[in-house]
């Protein structure tokens, strides 16, 4: 235990001497375990997450995070409460939809980067194509070098065609 809250003990001055009458609880008090200071009550259990689409649902993304993102992007801290609420709800729906698409692409119980990248790169849906620059598919270093060499060759070829 920490030094700031020492343990309290029930202490008798000395053990009982034989032959003297003892109060009925004296031996219990002498042998009793030390008292522990009262502990803070446990925090209340978290309520279960709300069903998707419920109007009074607890938020998945903190409102302060949305405010910080908007302030960082626009430099403005002022925004109407209704506009902030709409952006907040849209952000949550977007994250839910991206997570659902990523679950479909994942091969296990967890969603990894590859699953998110596959959901973004899905040509059939094309729903998250605008994220392709932010979430590119993984590649090996050798494949990256080959791609860069091919780009350089194409640029050189274009430069030679322009000169001619």
From TrEMBL:
Compositionally skewed regions (Basic residues) per UniProt: 1-11
Chain intervals for the UniProt region annotation (Disordered): 1-24, 37-56
SUPFAM superfamilies the UniProt entry points to: Histone-fold
Sequence ranges of Pro residues compositional bias: 15-24, 37-51
One Pfam family linked to the record: CBFD_NFYB_HMF
Xref: InterPro entries: CBFA_NFYB_domain, Histone-fold, Transcr_DNA_Rep_Reg
A GO molecular function held by the record: protein heterodimerization activity
Record keywords: Nucleus
Transcription factor CBF/NF-Y/archaeal histone domain boundaries: 61-106
UniProt entry tagged with the keyword Nucleus: yes
GO CC annotations on file: nucleus
Name the record gives this protein: Transcription factor CBF/NF-Y/archaeal histone domain-containing protein
Source organism of the structure: Pycnococcus provasolii
């Amino acid at each position: 235990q920490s030094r700031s809250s020492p343990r309290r003990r029930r202490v008798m001055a000395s053990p009982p001497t034989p032959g003297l009458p003892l109060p009925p609880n004296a031996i219990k008090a002498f042998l009793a375990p030390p008292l522990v200071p009262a502990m803070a009550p446990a925090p209340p259990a978290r309520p279960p997450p709300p069903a998707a689409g419920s109007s009074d649902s607890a938020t998945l993304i903190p409102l302060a995070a949305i405010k910080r993102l908007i302030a960082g992007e626009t430099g403005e801290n002022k925004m109407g409460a209704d506009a902030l609420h709409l952006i907040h709800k849209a952000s949550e729906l977007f994250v839910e939809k991206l997570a659902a698409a990523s679950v479909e692409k994942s091969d296990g119980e967890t969603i990894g980067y590859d699953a998110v990248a596959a959901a973004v790169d899905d040509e059939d849906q094309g729903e998250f194509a605008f994220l392709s620059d932010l979430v590119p598919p993984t590649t090996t270093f050798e494949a990256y070098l080959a791609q860069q060499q091919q780009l350089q060759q194409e640029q050189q070829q274009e430069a030679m065609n322009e000169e001619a």
